[in-house]
Specification:
Elements: E1 21-24, E2 29-33, E3 39-43, E4 48-51, H1 56-64, H2 75-83
Antiparallel strand pairs: 1-2, 2-3, 3-4
Length: about 90
């Protein structure tokens, strides 16, 4: 059975009291290491935690999909390329 993860805080004022969260001056964002070892990055523009992608082989194909934005606003493509992450979800999937 997979371990149950403690919910991630979604209010920035709660970040300072959560031992899993640190602030990266290099990335200028908050990072969270979950109990299962996965790493997450806070995307303040949409108030969401997104998974950190470290493996180049899994990263490359995801870049190709960043341009697909069903809302048509174009903001997902910009965020994707600036942060180097997969598509930014605009719903509460995370």
């Amino acid at each position: 059975m997979a371990p149950t993860l403690e919910p991630f805080p979604t209010e920035t004022e709660d970040f300072a009291t959560d031992d899993r969260i640190s602030f990266s001056k290099t990335a200028d964002t908050h990072l969270l290491e979950a109990e299962d070892g996965t790493e997450w990055e806070w995307l303040a523009r949409v108030s969401k935690w997104i998974p950190v992608v470290r493996n180049k082989s899994s990263f490359a194909p995801r870049i190709e999909n960043c341009g697909s934005n069903p809302a048509g606003s174009g903001s997902l493509r910009t965020d994707c390329h600036l942060l180097g992450v997969a598509q930014i979800l605009t719903h509460d999937a995370i």
